[in-house]
Write a structure and sequence with these properties.
The complex is a heterotrimer. Chain A is an all-alpha fold. In chain A, helix 3 crosses helix 13. In chain B, strand 1 and strand 2 form a beta hairpin. By secondary structure, chain C is α/β, with parallel strands linked by helices. In chain C, helix 9 crosses helix 10, helix 9 crosses helix 17 and helix 10 packs across helix 17. The chains are: A mainly alpha, B mainly alpha, C alpha/beta. Chains A and C meet through helix 6 of A and helix 1, helix 4, helix 11 and helix 12 of C.
Chain lengths: 302, 336, 423
């Protein structure tokens, strides 16, 4: 049963008491046990390969193919290799680039998405279904076939190696999902809420900003996270359109090399992958409350 | 969409509408129309430039021949108009005058189509089931739920290239999968293990995506609906099927639709994991391989893929009603 | 809000409209004209893949010190051959003048030359190729014209456990006969690179060429792979896989997996590139440190035909400073630079004289064996349709090895596929 983070005190008291009473009556709280088993199973599923990645990242490169499940031959060398700048790699700068590209993409994609979703969910205008069709259609073309035309386009206008050459395509990849999710969210908001605000003297824009947007916060932050991660993970276009100065981490990782040709710098790649995941985990930890900030803040009840 | 629960409670929330009420002043409606158009302009413009222009170019190029070799100079020269030749190459397996022999890319078209469909169905079904379960668990209130949500997103946040390399080494013959399971399976060496490996890697990576979207959708469901149902004696399963599923349907359908469109275009994971061998070549891998051999034929293949995916989405929208605007409008008509 | 949105929307439309118009302008000229190139001197850019051993930068610095007004900038690509290829293709298709001298894998030279992207090295760009190993020059030649100069080579070597096998096998049958030693010691017998990728073409070509067969004729287009010799060659691999002399897991092996198995002491014979030598000697986890030797690939009468690897350096047809480029090319392939590449970077030299140099032999003990290998090497098909040819070879050789189809049929299909590709 879904429960939410903020609950009115009285209700919580009654509910909690009932639950506790039921628990005491029945003995072993099977539902809680099931919950915890479920939680442990989920965490194992999600983190087991990641754990293997970390173990490998800390393993000495001479023992790359060692299959011992717990950490052996532990060393920090791989992390040093990742940040080593003597061979022209600049992983730190790549991290900064990724952050810049990710943040810009997210802000613009969510902004454009909110505009479009408001129009689609709240306004009447001709060609609504055409618009929805175009937005969805943008997710149907194989991304690998976009490379050459976009490369030539951006090179011709002199945008090769700039941030905007990466940000604009990333926005277009994030937009379809953003628009659809936000439209779904806004469509579910009852019109009465805005009407009440309008009656109180707000303009439609203010009604939207102050009433609807906060209620759609779960949708907003969800799409923000997804857009950021999509921009963070994008590789194909970035590999073609970025220069040494603007390359994001995905391209930097692909440039890792062993000390010999044909050698796969597997441990260094795992170390880089570990480093790259940390900012995202922090981001999610910060934002995860917002994802589930529910409607009990006084929204649709009564 | 009206939030009237089906488990008959006495008094439902007052009927709530989600379309704007009719206004009698035409200038206001016209102004709203203009506003609507302005608001969608940035989105449409970005999409038309980044995706519309390449699509347009691809369609144009697909009607030209690939460059051919001039026997005298030994240099490639432009191929000239091709009509539908590039399309029959793929769809009807015509390579010159003969049926495409094994070892050419043309012969791989239909196997790639079937591999793509297999990955789509398998991945999406598993991811929806797992994602729903994860979303339900994540939406509960308990200590440490923040860490749970962060750990659920870890697979999704690792760059695909790194994930693919990780699974490549997990599934290597001498890798940890065989080591832990005490098996000697050639994961990347035969068809079904290879497909299994790709599906496992893909499910691990993208279940969080679906879980997150379903979780967001779950937040819309008001608490009292469940309380009322519990009071009425509905079991957990009934609460799930009669309340949760219908109310989370819009978010779920959007998640499934986009996930399907994504898997139909999947490239990175099978390419790095198996190189596309053993029945794991997808349409996008075929496109990339073809680009190296002849760009016009690749443009035709991209267009075919585009049309195929469009048809899938069309069926989706028609049959499952994934179109959000239409859904609430038709429900509105029903309610009135 | 309406006013702000309107402003935003209009400016967005204008900005993107400008974008579209610029893009529709097509891939026009983006650099100096080619008539200036013949005598053009000035700064240039050298494009190559990842510099594993940091040899490119010091060499370029040396040039820059001696030529301050013709400085070379090093543009480093990724480590993956596929990405390097695609990166070059993108820039050439866009007629980019920023790429002046490019490093090309030996299998790409014909393709790029046929597309008119490389400057032919004749007339004012002529270069002396007499000092290079003939096989390496063949990789840089297309249609009887020289298009690049080789600067690094690579040949296949047979790594074997010298503590278990006193003398390395000279023929394939001899090697298969020694598999009983492997069985006795609970090891796999022989492995190469048999996953479905370029490495399989390398190995299959070696098997076919060693037996006297050919994949394509001298014109680079006509397939000649449907011959009894080729059947014999490819059949050796298929039979060994069926009988277990090649272990089942070798069908998933790229270079690293074979090396891993050999270093763990689980493999008796390994066909791989010279890079394994230093890693097997210095890797902490290597169990075969002093126990392995190197030999040329087994052949029929004489050493086997190794596939030729390596890189050539070429001048882009769109470069604005081609005079500088050709001078740099000659510097890059000079004896001094070759020696530096060999000692510092373990890159197999292309100049015959360097193979007999005692100091180099001391540093790279496998050098004499490598010379035999490269002298007897057969380049992979020098054809502008190389991507299609290698696909035809890979797919069918893979099926033949796994036993999915008989060798004769696989070669038939290979022949038809190559014919279809070159049409």
């Amino acid at each position: 049963m879904a429960s939410t983070t903020t609950v009115e005190p009285g209700r919580a008291g009654v509910g909690a008491q009932t639950a506790a009473y039921t628990r005491r009556r029945r003995g072993i709280p099977w539902s809680s046990v099931r919950s915890y088993v479920g939680i442990v199973a989920i965490v194992l599923f999600c983190l087991a390969p990641f754990y293997w990645m970390i173990v490998t990242a800390f393993r000495d490169v001479g023992y790359t193919f060692d299959n011992t499940p717990w950490p052996t031959h532990v060393t920090l060398d791989n992390f040093r290799t990742v940040f080593d700048t003597s061979l022209g790699n600049h992983f730190g700068r790549a991290l900064v680039n990724s952050v810049i590209i990710g943040v810009c993409t997210t802000i613009l994609a969510v902004m454009f998405g909110v505009f479009a979703a408001y129009a689609l969910a709240r306004l009447d205008f001709r060609g609504k279904f055409v618009v929805l069709g175009i937005v969805l259609g943008a997710s149907m073309f194989p991304g690998v076939a976009l490379l050459t035309p976009l490369f030539q386009l951006f090179t011709n206008i002199g945008w090769f190696g700039t941030y905007q050459a990466l940000i604009i395509p990333d926005i277009s990849f994030a937009l379809p999902l953003t628009v659809y999710v936000l439209t779904a969210f806004f469509s579910e908001m009852p019109w009465e809420l805005e009407q009440a605000a309008l009656v109180d003297g707000a303009t439609p824009g203010q009604a939207f900003r102050k009433v609807i947007l906060p209620l759609a916060a779960p949708g907003l932050f969800t799409t923000a996270i997804l857009a950021f991660i999509a921009a963070w993970n994008e590789f194909l276009l970035a590999s073609q359109l970025s220069s040494d100065k603007t390359q994001p981490v995905t391209v930097a990782i692909a440039s890792f090399t062993g000390s010999q040709p044909h050698q796969e710098p597997y441990t260094a790649i795992m170390a880089a992958g570990t480093i790259v995941t940390i900012p995202l985990v922090i981001l999610v930890l910060i934002l995860q409350r917002r994802i589930v900030a529910g409607l009990t803040a006084g929204g649709v009840k009564g | 969409m009206s939030a009237t629960p089906e488990a008959g409670t006495g008094e439902a929330a007052p009927e709530q509408t989600t379309t704007p009420p009719r206004r009698g002043r035409p200038e206001l409606t016209a102004a709203r129309n203009r506003l609507g158009l302005y608001l969608i302009t940035p989105t449409i413009v970005v999409l038309l430039v980044v995706i519309g222009y390449p699509v347009f170019r691809a369609v144009l190029m697909s009607f030209q021949n690939d460059a051919g070799l001039d026997p005298q100079t030994g240099l490639f020269v432009s191929g000239g108009f091709a009509g539908f030749k590039n399309y029959t190459h793929w769809l009807l397996q015509r390579c010159g005058g003969v049926s495409c022999p094994p070892g050419t890319l043309g012969s791989q078209f239909w196997p790639a189509m079937s591999a793509t469909i297999f990955f789509t169905v398998a991945s999406v079904v598993i991811e929806v089931v797992l994602g729903m379960w994860m979303a339900l668990v994540m939406s509960r209130a308990f200590k440490g739920r923040g860490l749970l949500r962060a750990s659920v997103l870890v697979p999704w946040s690792i760059p695909t290239a790194v994930t693919a390399k990780l699974w490549f080494f997990i599934f290597a013959f001498a890798g940890i999968a065989n080591s832990l399971l005490h098996t000697k399976i050639l994961w990347t060496g035969s068809q079904w293990p290879a497909r299994f490996a790709v599906v496992v890697a893909d499910v691990w990576k993208t279940t969080p995506f679906i879980a997150l979207l379903i979780l967001a959708g779950l937040q819309i469901i008001p608490e009292e609906v469940y309380e009322a149902a519990k009071v009425d004696g509905a079991t957990k399963w009934q609460r799930f099927t009669r309340i949760t599923l219908p109310l989370v349907r819009p978010a779920l359908l959007v998640a499934v639709l986009f996930r399907t469109l994504d898997v139909l275009r999947i490239f990175d994971l099978p390419y790095i994991l198996t190189g596309g061998s053993n029945g794991t070549t997808t349409l996008s891998i075929l496109v990339v391989n073809q680009i190296r051999q002849g760009f016009n034929s690749a443009a035709a293949l991209s267009t075919i893929t585009f049309v195929f995916i469009f048809l899938v989405a069309f069926v989706f929208v028609k049959v499952l009603g994934a179109n959000v605007v239409k859904t609430q409008q038709s429900q509105q008509k029903g309610a009135r | 809000m309406i006013r702000r949105t309107r402003l935003l929307a209009v400016s967005a439309v204008l900005a993107v409209g400008a974008l579209v118009m610029a893009g529709c302008g097509g891939g026009g000229s983006s650099g100096g004209g080619s008539n200036q190139g013949v005598t053009g001197r000035g700064p240039i850019t050298y494009v190559a893949g990842k510099d594993n051993n940091n040899i490119n930068r010091p060499t370029i610095n040396k040039w820059n010190a001696a030529h301050p007004d013709q400085k070379v900038t090093f543009k480093e690509q990724s480590d993956q051959a596929d990405q390097q290829h695609d990166d070059l293709v993108q820039h050439f298709q866009a007629k980019d003048a920023n790429y002046d001298v490019v490093s090309v894998d030996v299998i790409w030279t014909a393709e790029f030359a046929a597309k008119g992207w490389l400057q032919p090295l004749k007339d004012s760009f002529a270069a002396d190729t007499s000092k290079f190993l003939p096989a390496t020059v063949k990789t840089a030649t297309y249609n009887n014209t020289l298009y690049a100069l080789p600067y690094a080579s690579d040949g296949g070597l047979l790594f074997y456990r010298k503590d278990l096998v006193k003398t390395p096998p000279k023929t394939w049958d001899e090697m298969m006969g020694m598999c009983s030693i492997a069985k006795k010691n609970n090891m796999d017998c022989y492995a190469g690179q048999f996953a479905k990728y370029e490495g399989l073409t390398v190995n299959a070509a070696e098997a076919i060429n060693t037996a006297g067969g050919k994949i394509v004729g001298d014109d680079g287009k006509t397939p000649e792979v449907n011959s009894p010799e080729a059947t014999k060659g490819l059949g050796r691999l298929a039979d060994a896989y069926k009988s277990g002399n090649i272990p089942k897991q070798a069908i998933t092996y790229q270079e690293e997996q074979g090396r891993q198995s050999f270093e763990a002491g689980k493999l008796l014979f390994l066909r791989n590139w010279p890079y394994v030598f230093s890693l097997a000697t210095t890797d902490a986890s290597s169990k075969v440190k002093d126990k392995f030797g190197i030999a040329p690939l087994p052949g029929d009468s004489g050493p086997g035909a190794s596939s030729l690897g390596g890189h050539d350096a070429a001048i882009s047809a769109f470069s604005a400073h081609k005079a500088t480029a050709i001078d740099f090319l000659k510097f890059w392939t000079s004896e001094e630079t070759g020696r530096y590449f060999a000692t510092q970077g373990s890159l197999a030299p292309v100049l015959s004289s360097l193979y007999d140099d005692p100091t180099l032999i001391k540093k790279l003990p496998y050098l004499p064996t490598l010379k035999t290998s490269i002298t007897n090497a057969v380049p992979r098909p020098v054809t502008p349709f190389y991507p299609a040819v290698t696909k035809a070879v890979e797919d069918n050789a893979y099926a033949a090895m796994k036993g999915d189809k008989p060798v004769q049929q696989a070669l038939n299909d290979m022949q038809n596929a190559i014919k279809a590709a070159a049409s």
